[in-house]
Write a structure and sequence with these properties.
Blueprint lengths: L2 H22 L6 H25 L7 H11 L7 H14 L12 H5 L12 H7 L3 H24 L1 H23 L20 H6 L8 H6 L15 H9 L4
Bound molecules: zinc ion (2 copies).
The site of one zinc ion has 6 residues, from helix 10.
Protein backbone atom coordinates (compact mmCIF):
# COMPACT_ATOMS: atom_id res chain seq x y z
CA UNK A 1 0.00 0.00 0.00
CA UNK A 2 1.53 3.33 -1.03
CA UNK A 3 1.86 6.23 1.39
CA UNK A 4 -0.87 8.09 -0.48
CA UNK A 5 -3.26 5.11 -0.36
CA UNK A 6 -2.74 4.93 3.40
CA UNK A 7 -3.21 8.68 3.73
CA UNK A 8 -6.42 8.66 1.71
CA UNK A 9 -7.84 5.77 3.76
CA UNK A 10 -6.86 7.47 7.02
CA UNK A 11 -8.29 10.84 5.93
CA UNK A 12 -11.57 9.14 5.03
CA UNK A 13 -11.66 7.37 8.42
CA UNK A 14 -10.88 10.66 10.19
CA UNK A 15 -13.73 12.39 8.30
CA UNK A 16 -16.18 9.69 9.42
CA UNK A 17 -14.89 9.64 13.01
CA UNK A 18 -14.89 13.44 13.16
CA UNK A 19 -18.45 13.81 11.85
CA UNK A 20 -19.88 11.05 14.07
CA UNK A 21 -17.80 12.28 17.02
CA UNK A 22 -18.92 15.86 16.75
CA UNK A 23 -22.59 14.80 16.58
CA UNK A 24 -22.28 12.52 19.62
CA UNK A 25 -20.04 14.83 21.68
CA UNK A 26 -21.26 18.22 20.45
CA UNK A 27 -20.01 21.09 22.61
CA UNK A 28 -19.10 24.39 20.92
CA UNK A 29 -16.61 25.27 23.68
CA UNK A 30 -14.35 22.52 22.34
CA UNK A 31 -14.13 24.31 18.98
CA UNK A 32 -11.52 26.49 20.68
CA UNK A 33 -9.25 23.43 20.68
CA UNK A 34 -9.99 22.89 16.96
CA UNK A 35 -8.95 26.47 16.22
CA UNK A 36 -5.76 26.05 18.24
CA UNK A 37 -4.90 22.85 16.34
CA UNK A 38 -5.55 24.58 13.02
CA UNK A 39 -3.03 27.27 13.96
CA UNK A 40 -0.45 24.70 15.13
CA UNK A 41 -0.87 22.05 12.43
CA UNK A 42 -2.18 23.88 9.34
CA UNK A 43 -0.70 27.35 9.75
CA UNK A 44 2.62 26.61 11.48
CA UNK A 45 3.18 22.98 10.40
CA UNK A 46 1.91 23.06 6.84
CA UNK A 47 1.84 26.64 5.57
CA UNK A 48 4.70 28.29 7.45
CA UNK A 49 7.04 25.30 7.65
CA UNK A 50 6.35 22.74 4.87
CA UNK A 51 5.31 25.30 2.29
CA UNK A 52 7.04 28.65 2.74
CA UNK A 53 10.12 27.35 4.60
CA UNK A 54 10.87 23.85 3.24
CA UNK A 55 9.39 24.31 -0.23
CA UNK A 56 10.56 27.85 -0.95
CA UNK A 57 13.31 28.66 1.58
CA UNK A 58 11.74 32.11 1.78
CA UNK A 59 13.26 32.88 5.24
CA UNK A 60 15.46 31.32 7.92
CA UNK A 61 14.17 29.45 10.95
CA UNK A 62 15.94 28.18 14.08
CA UNK A 63 16.65 24.43 14.35
CA UNK A 64 14.30 24.18 17.31
CA UNK A 65 11.30 25.65 15.49
CA UNK A 66 12.09 23.53 12.42
CA UNK A 67 11.80 20.37 14.53
CA UNK A 68 8.64 21.48 16.32
CA UNK A 69 6.82 22.60 13.16
CA UNK A 70 7.83 19.45 11.23
CA UNK A 71 6.26 17.46 14.08
CA UNK A 72 3.08 19.59 14.02
CA UNK A 73 2.73 19.06 10.26
CA UNK A 74 2.20 15.30 10.75
CA UNK A 75 -1.29 15.90 12.16
CA UNK A 76 -2.62 17.56 8.99
CA UNK A 77 -2.30 14.18 7.27
CA UNK A 78 -0.81 15.78 4.15
CA UNK A 79 2.05 13.26 4.25
CA UNK A 80 5.64 13.63 5.38
CA UNK A 81 7.31 17.06 4.96
CA UNK A 82 9.88 15.81 2.41
CA UNK A 83 7.05 14.53 0.21
CA UNK A 84 4.97 17.69 0.63
CA UNK A 85 7.82 20.09 -0.23
CA UNK A 86 9.17 18.07 -3.15
CA UNK A 87 5.71 17.65 -4.73
CA UNK A 88 5.04 21.34 -4.22
CA UNK A 89 8.24 22.39 -6.00
CA UNK A 90 6.98 20.47 -9.04
CA UNK A 91 3.59 22.19 -8.76
CA UNK A 92 5.35 25.55 -9.18
CA UNK A 93 7.55 24.27 -11.98
CA UNK A 94 4.64 22.79 -13.99
CA UNK A 95 1.57 24.68 -12.69
CA UNK A 96 -1.56 24.12 -14.83
CA UNK A 97 0.24 21.90 -17.35
CA UNK A 98 -0.05 18.13 -17.84
CA UNK A 99 2.94 17.69 -15.48
CA UNK A 100 1.31 19.58 -12.57
CA UNK A 101 0.99 17.07 -9.66
CA UNK A 102 -2.44 18.55 -8.81
CA UNK A 103 -3.85 20.41 -11.83
CA UNK A 104 -6.97 22.49 -11.24
CA UNK A 105 -8.32 21.34 -14.62
CA UNK A 106 -9.09 17.88 -13.20
CA UNK A 107 -10.99 19.55 -10.37
CA UNK A 108 -12.55 16.64 -8.48
CA UNK A 109 -9.62 14.28 -8.97
CA UNK A 110 -7.31 16.98 -7.66
CA UNK A 111 -9.64 17.82 -4.76
CA UNK A 112 -9.71 14.19 -3.60
CA UNK A 113 -6.00 13.53 -4.25
CA UNK A 114 -6.71 11.28 -7.22
CA UNK A 115 -4.86 13.28 -9.91
CA UNK A 116 -2.59 10.88 -11.83
CA UNK A 117 0.68 12.73 -11.09
CA UNK A 118 -0.04 13.37 -7.42
CA UNK A 119 1.77 10.31 -6.07
CA UNK A 120 4.73 10.24 -8.42
CA UNK A 121 5.62 13.86 -9.09
CA UNK A 122 8.56 14.80 -6.87
CA UNK A 123 11.42 17.24 -7.33
CA UNK A 124 14.43 14.91 -6.96
CA UNK A 125 16.71 17.84 -6.09
CA UNK A 126 14.37 18.83 -3.24
CA UNK A 127 14.17 15.24 -1.97
CA UNK A 128 18.00 15.05 -1.96
CA UNK A 129 18.30 18.39 -0.15
CA UNK A 130 15.77 17.44 2.54
CA UNK A 131 17.02 13.87 3.03
CA UNK A 132 20.09 15.44 4.66
CA UNK A 133 17.85 16.45 7.59
CA UNK A 134 17.85 13.50 10.03
CA UNK A 135 14.66 14.66 11.79
CA UNK A 136 12.74 14.80 8.49
CA UNK A 137 14.02 11.35 7.55
CA UNK A 138 12.89 10.04 10.95
CA UNK A 139 9.41 11.57 10.49
CA UNK A 140 9.22 10.14 6.97
CA UNK A 141 10.02 6.67 8.27
CA UNK A 142 7.73 6.67 11.31
CA UNK A 143 5.02 9.04 10.05
CA UNK A 144 2.02 6.78 10.71
CA UNK A 145 3.45 5.32 13.94
CA UNK A 146 3.89 8.84 15.37
CA UNK A 147 0.41 9.81 14.21
CA UNK A 148 -1.30 6.81 15.83
CA UNK A 149 0.76 7.06 19.03
CA UNK A 150 -0.12 10.72 19.59
CA UNK A 151 -3.77 10.60 18.49
CA UNK A 152 -4.30 7.27 20.31
CA UNK A 153 -2.94 8.79 23.53
CA UNK A 154 -5.17 11.84 23.05
CA UNK A 155 -8.21 9.57 22.61
CA UNK A 156 -7.35 7.64 25.77
CA UNK A 157 -7.07 10.87 27.78
CA UNK A 158 -10.40 12.18 26.47
CA UNK A 159 -12.09 11.17 23.22
CA UNK A 160 -13.07 14.82 22.71
CA UNK A 161 -9.37 15.78 22.49
CA UNK A 162 -9.04 13.38 19.53
CA UNK A 163 -12.29 14.59 17.91
CA UNK A 164 -11.89 18.34 18.34
CA UNK A 165 -8.10 18.56 18.50
CA UNK A 166 -7.16 16.10 15.74
CA UNK A 167 -10.11 14.97 13.56
CA UNK A 168 -11.94 18.25 12.89
CA UNK A 169 -8.70 20.11 12.02
CA UNK A 170 -7.89 17.41 9.42
CA UNK A 171 -11.34 17.80 7.85
CA UNK A 172 -10.87 21.57 7.71
CA UNK A 173 -7.29 21.30 6.43
CA UNK A 174 -8.31 18.88 3.68
CA UNK A 175 -11.06 21.28 2.61
CA UNK A 176 -8.59 24.21 2.56
CA UNK A 177 -6.18 22.18 0.45
CA UNK A 178 -8.91 21.62 -2.16
CA UNK A 179 -9.80 25.32 -2.09
CA UNK A 180 -6.18 26.30 -2.80
CA UNK A 181 -5.34 23.63 -5.39
CA UNK A 182 -8.59 23.93 -7.34
CA UNK A 183 -10.35 27.26 -6.71
CA UNK A 184 -7.22 29.44 -6.47
CA UNK A 185 -6.16 28.16 -9.89
CA UNK A 186 -9.55 28.97 -11.42
CA UNK A 187 -11.30 31.96 -9.83
CA UNK A 188 -10.16 35.35 -8.59
CA UNK A 189 -7.96 38.21 -9.79
CA UNK A 190 -4.39 38.45 -11.00
CA UNK A 191 -1.98 41.09 -9.75
CA UNK A 192 0.84 39.57 -11.81
CA UNK A 193 0.96 38.20 -15.36
CA UNK A 194 2.12 34.62 -14.66
CA UNK A 195 2.27 31.71 -17.12
CA UNK A 196 -0.25 29.74 -15.04
CA UNK A 197 -3.87 30.26 -13.97
CA UNK A 198 -3.09 31.14 -10.34
CA UNK A 199 -5.44 33.76 -8.88
CA UNK A 200 -5.74 35.78 -5.70
CA UNK A 201 -9.08 34.89 -4.15
CA UNK A 202 -10.40 36.88 -1.19
CA UNK A 203 -13.33 34.53 -0.46
CA UNK A 204 -10.91 31.60 -0.35
CA UNK A 205 -8.67 33.61 1.95
CA UNK A 206 -11.66 34.25 4.21
CA UNK A 207 -12.41 30.49 4.29
CA UNK A 208 -8.74 29.99 5.18
CA UNK A 209 -9.22 32.51 8.04
CA UNK A 210 -6.65 34.85 6.49
CA UNK A 211 -3.90 32.23 6.26
CA UNK A 212 -2.64 34.05 3.13
CA UNK A 213 -1.86 31.27 0.66
CA UNK A 214 -5.09 32.06 -1.21
CA UNK A 215 -3.25 35.17 -2.44
CA UNK A 216 -2.07 32.57 -4.84
CA UNK A 217 -1.21 34.55 -7.97
CA UNK A 218 1.14 36.73 -5.91
CA UNK A 219 2.68 33.56 -4.49
CA UNK A 220 3.21 31.98 -7.93
CA UNK A 221 4.65 35.24 -9.28
CA UNK A 222 7.10 35.75 -6.38
CA UNK A 223 7.49 32.41 -4.54
CA UNK A 224 10.75 33.55 -2.91
CA UNK A 225 8.85 36.19 -0.90
CA UNK A 226 7.11 34.85 2.21
CA UNK A 227 4.95 37.99 2.37
CA UNK A 228 1.95 37.49 0.07
CA UNK A 229 -0.07 40.63 0.77
CA UNK A 230 0.34 43.42 -1.78
CA UNK A 231 -2.88 45.36 -1.05
CA UNK A 232 -4.41 46.69 2.19
CA UNK A 233 -7.36 44.26 1.84
CA UNK A 234 -5.15 41.19 1.39
CA UNK A 235 -4.66 39.48 4.78
CA UNK A 236 -1.66 37.19 5.27
CA UNK A 237 -1.58 36.08 8.91
CA UNK A 238 1.12 33.45 8.34
CA UNK A 239 3.54 36.16 7.13
CA UNK A 240 2.98 37.98 10.44
CA UNK A 241 3.87 34.78 12.31
CA UNK A 242 7.00 34.45 10.15
CA UNK A 243 7.95 38.05 11.00
CA UNK A 244 7.95 36.99 14.66
CA UNK A 245 9.61 33.57 14.27
CA UNK A 246 12.23 33.96 11.50
CA UNK A 247 15.91 34.36 12.32
CA UNK A 248 16.52 36.36 9.11
CA UNK A 249 15.09 36.81 5.56
ZN1 LIG B 1 4.37 27.52 -3.16
ZN1 LIG C 1 -0.58 26.85 -6.98
Amino acid sequence: MSEFSKLRALILAVHLAGIVGVVVYWNPVWLGLTLMSVVLFTWLGQELYCHRYLGHRAFELSEGWQKVFAFFSIFNLFGNPIGIASTHVNHHKHADTALDPHPAATAWQTWFWMAPGFEQSRSIATVKRLMRDAWLVFIRRYYFAIYFAVVGTAALIDIRVAIYGFFLPVIYSFFCNGVINVLCHKYGYKLFATNDNSKNNLIANLLLLGNGVALHNTHHAEPWDYRLSRQWYEVDAVALLIDILKTKD
